[in-house]
Specification:
single chain, globular, Zincin-like, alpha/beta, 2 domains, about 35% helix
Length: about 250
């Protein structure tokens, strides 16, 4: 059975893929009622499965839908260049104007990967031969960076626009840049770090304005335009900006 506690990589190279690149990944979801497939613009394929689904069932499902997957990949390839997975050696975070060097230090006998950041160098140490463990460590670091960068910006915008909120959460969301709950919690995607600063600012204004209007009504957009007159162009750019998120994060 598939382990619900982690994402399982099933390696099934095609004719145009190296043995290192997984043909698809499997994500076990407690809410899933049936198997489904997502094809992302850079060619990554994710299979979402209910708990207690066998690996044999997953492989058979992918084989049954192989033609559809190939068509989806071909369609995306017209606008997106497929990328092979590779751990980063440098990370550029445009929204905070930062470039970070990443180094990897293997330590025998250490099963996990931890990180240390100093002098603009991010050092991952431990079992650095485990790509998945390295990605998890990178995500932990990015979450810390995002919280430190986003909290004061959101607070300042809240005061400036007179649109209060209760709490801020930093998440790695796959389908949205941000959201706001009815209780006033604003969730921001850590992937905003990879976007231009004006896009992150617009997204924050967008979510703050939902405190007045929990919809996308004319009144909502009028409020947004009061604080960001160029919101239409920024909203279009935001919708196209998933391509700026690096492949190694496994989001897009």
């Amino acid at each position: 059975m598939l382990n619900a506690a982690r994402q399982l990589l099933l390696f099934e190279p095609g004719p145009d893929e190296s043995g290192r690149i997984p043909r698809f990944t499997v994500r076990v979801s407690a809410r899933a009622k049936r198997l489904s497939i997502k094809v992302y613009p850079r060619g990554r394929v994710e299979v979402v499965v209910p708990k207690r689904t066998s690996a044999r069932t997953v492989k058979a499902f992918v084989e049954e839908n192989k033609d559809w997957i190939d068509r989806a990949r071909d369609s995306f390839a017209e606008n997106y260049t497929p990328e092979s997975f590779m751990l980063p050696r440098q990370i550029h975070l445009p929204t905070i104007d930062s470039r970070v060097i990443v180094t990897y230090r293997e330590e025998v006998g250490i099963p996990t990967v931890r990180y240390r950041f100093a002098n603009n160098i991010l050092t991952l140490s431990g079992n650095t031969n485990d790509d998945a463990a390295c990605v998890k460590a990178l995500k932990r670091w990015l979450s810390t960076v995002a919280r430190k960068a986003f909290e004061p910006r959101l607070r300042a915008l809240s005061l400036r626009t007179e649109t209060p909120y209760e709490k801020i959460h930093i998440r790695l969301q796959r389908t949205c840049w941000g959201s706001r709950s009815s209780s006033g919690t604003i969730s921001l995607n850590l992937c905003l770090l990879f976007l231009a600063p004006e896009l992150t600012r617009y997204l924050m204004i967008h979510e703050l304005c939902h405190g007045r209007h929990m919809n996308h009504s004319k009144r909502f957009w009028k409020l947004v335009s009061r604080h960001e007159p160029a919101y239409r162009a920024l909203d279009r750019r935001l919708g196209e900006s998933w391509r700026d998120v690096p492949n190694w994060l496994g989001v897009y």
